[in-house]
Amino acid sequence: MADKITIDVLTLDSVQCAACGYMMESIAALPSDVQDMIVYKEWSIKNKDGIGKFMELKGKVLPTICIERDLVFESIIPQYEELIDEMAKRAPNDEMRGRIESLREKGFEFDKIQENLAKAGAGMSTRTDSKVE
Amino acid sequence: MAKQMLIDAYRGKRTEKPPWVPYAGVHCAFLINEPADKMLQDPELLAKGVVNTAKRYNADGIPLVFDLSVEANSIGCDLKWWADNVPSVTNHPCSDKTPKDAGLQMPTKESGRWPVLYEAARIAKPQLDELDCVLMGLFCGPLTLASHLAGVRIFTDVYKNPEFAAEVIKFAGEVGAEAAKFYAEMGCEIIAIVDPVASQIKSETFQQFVTPNSQPAIKAIHAAGATSSFFICGDCTKVMEDVCKIGTHGFAIDEQLNMLFVRDLARKHGVGFGGNLKLTLALSLGLLSPREDAIVSLAAGGQEGYTFAPG
Fold it and tell me: Whole-angstrom Cα distance, residue B144 to residue B174?
């Protein structure tokens, strides 16, 4: 999806593991203008799809935030500005890079977290027989 | 099952063999064919689940719950319940204000699910005593509770807005001290601060916010004559020295750390350590043999201050 930035969050399980949960929330709490420019998903290694993604991206530790397939935040929950900067670096075009950078002072928004987490499948694929949709 | 052996190991002492603690959590519900959300809200089922699991796994100690939403829920956070998992916190009352401005109060024994835990402990404790198994109290550590209260912004605030972060984390540490007193009153002989997100910050941030705000709880645990521990998850290599120095009798880590590294660090600091049977790769997914994995952990851990446990 070239017009969006792809973010993969490698987790143990964002419900059971608080560190994984707040890695997911760091993406889900990005402001709505940023939400329009990203697609993201939780990959819990409790299921085979998640293990496959962990191997594919060459994950080393959990949790990890990958942006455009790069392991960017490994066992460190990012600050808002760090997330914005790393997304801007990997934006598919200058126009999007500019839009993301313009949101650097905006800060996290907490009113749509649950809705955004549901869209990312957070907590929905944590059984060994789960499939990541 | 041997309570004293477990307490000795948690305090860094030599034991005849490594004691064993299954952090069973909502797996207790699975073993009695009940949904996790039902068990966690029903004291009789919770006691039944915990005692049944202790018997089944020949545990030397077992937590009453392994649920880091209890403290947040008891001071005003809402929960989403899951049939096969612990509840998750769904709102952050301090996302735009301090605990004082949000009107948050210290929890009492009547707040949130504390009455359920008191009743479950009352039922389970004598049965566990009979099994010579320690009832353990685990509560949410200061940084994880601050995350529940303020949301993910707390990880930005510790750098950009340290006064706000300090106020939230200090409040969280005081809530933790209350939780520690509750567990001591329930008869828990081992009480642990569980702060998984403390692995996701830098060492300086740990020293600035986690170490000082764990002290009220550690003081409460030790004043009650109980044994203390600090549980941390993930790749916490960068803060391991800080964990060893925090002031608890010991600590526990998960499958992402190397047991030899952890053992040597624990012995250097004279504290107990626990771990790290691989929860996902061995126990959950079977990608490694749990038996072989257990042998590796047991060989690395040895018999001095070591508790065998899932990581």
Answer: 13
